[in-house]
Amino acid sequence: MTSGTSPQGLKYAVRRSGRAVAYCALSIGCGTRDEKGYPAGIAHFVEHNLFRGTRRKSAAVINGYLDKLGGELNAYTTKEEIVLHATVLKEDWKKAVGLLFELATEATFPESEIETERGVVLDEIISYKDNPAEDVYDRFESLLFQGTPLETPILGTAASVKKISADMLRKFVADKFVPSRMVLSVVADIDEAVLEKDVLKMVEGFFVTEEGAPSLAKKRADAPEGASLPCTKDSPTEETCSADASAIKLADGEQASFGGRCFHKVIDKRHHEVNAVIGCRAPSLYEMPERLVCAMLANILGGPASNSLLNKELREKRGWVYGIECSYTQYADTGILAITFGCDRPNLEDCQKAIDKILKRLCEVPFTPAQLKAYRKQLLGQLAISADAGEAQCLSMGKSMLSWGSIMSPEETRAALLAITPEDLQKMAARLFAPDNLCSLIYL
Fold first, then answer.
1. Do residues 350 and 402 share a domain?
2. Is residue 244 a part of any domain in this protein?
3. Angle, CA of 222, 5 and 55, to the nearest 5°
4. 276 φ, ψ to 5°?
5. Pairing state between β 273-282 and 11-16
6. In Å, what is the CA distance from 45 to each residue of 31, 42, 119, 122, 149?
7. Which of 190, 221, 252 is the last residue of a domain?
């Protein structure tokens, strides 16, 4: 793998693979938490509207540009990044990368197309609310991070999305889409030296003076950089927090006011199935080695394998849930560990007691060396299999370069995981699952 930074400040990482397919991604270091001064949901709305026309291509041309090559074009928005990515045959990788750069630097945001896409996003918000399993997690995260930029839901609200104008979209992109916030990652069966040379040439074409006038990207070179900091509980002003998300209605007009403190909330949604989240704040992206310890603990507790502790007890042994998982999401200054599950109402109390028992045992009883060895092997196997998937590898490279400016090698990852002890996991469990740290939100 080869990585570096272009003279324009854009980071890149290229890796040769043995596949006939090329995976390309442009990761931009701005997301929901960077919406200060804008209506909530503008980052996600920008992502949608990048595809609605550029200086060179109409929305119809963009939609079919890679399709006619048998390729795919997609994008997503998180709390901290917007990612455009494409999959094509390896001989077409330059067309894919060129399109990604064009979308990020030359989007025109025509009014008629914006109104079309506004309808799509408003429908997405409604459909999301109709999915209680997703809605309960979104609400839980907003409550957990209340008073900070992470409180804002990625989609925004119907009211906030209706406020977004074309000028706002253009200003947001001009402020945030600067080369120093961008990472291009490519995985393809092409010599890495050739890939790097061609990538640098393409970057120069999009981020330097063009026909005597600065390109859109060049004009953005002096825009503010860096992630926005969370507002504190003592001063959550309108300027530092998205106003549209600062008051989350719970039930009968009641509003959340937890300010980051422990909370336990039950909301009667009159659903057949109960949907619940139990979780807490967790180590941030930059806490090492704590974040790896937390990741291993989450995998043991409720990872994708059927032998996770929660799945074995609540699904396989008891049959109380169809599915239960523990996820760990890392942000620049904090993280969230969340146990999510759905069950019938009569089983809710039993599920809560079983979860409490498992969490308490993790805090009080360390794993044996043999248990830890087995869990470590399982996690290393999962990581290796995930890394073998080209798209996942490409997206992971972009995330790593965006976060750290480098990529942790498999050997470094293995060494870090081998260094984790039973005592490390027990200490992390005690930190996370202390009674005054755990929060819960239940939809009945």
1. yes
2. no
3. 55
4. -135, 150
5. unpaired
6. 11, 5, 11, 10, 17
7. 221
Other CB atoms within 10 A of residue 354 CB: 19
Number of domains in the chain: 2
- Model confidence at 209, pLDDT cuts 50, 70, 90, reads very low
Q: Minimal CA–CA distance to 441: which of 40, 142, 151, 155?
A: 142
The whole-chain average pLDDT of the chain stands at 87
Residue 131 lies in a domain: yes
Q: What is the pLDDT of residues 363-377, one digit of tens each?
A: 999 999 999 999 999
Query: Would you say 277 and 441 are in contact if contact means Cβ atoms under 8 Å apart?
Result: yes
Mean pLDDT of 239-246: 30
Residue 252, in any domain of the structure: no
252 C-beta neighbours (distance < 10 Å), count? 7
- Domain enclosing residue 400, as ranges: 261-443
pLDDT at 96: 97
What the block records as the tokens of 398 is 């972009």
Residue at a domain's end among 221, 242, 272: 221
What CATH number should be reported for the domain holding residue 268?
3.30.830.10
* Structure tokens that stand for 223 in this block: 């825009």
Q: Is the peptide bond before 289 cis (omega within 30 degrees of 0)?
A: yes
Q: How far apart are CA 140 and CA 57, in angstroms?
A: 40
**Does a structural domain hold residue 231?**
no
- CA-to-CA distance for 357 and 213, rounded, in angstroms? 66
Evaluate whether 48 touches 97 at the Cβ level (below 8 Å): no
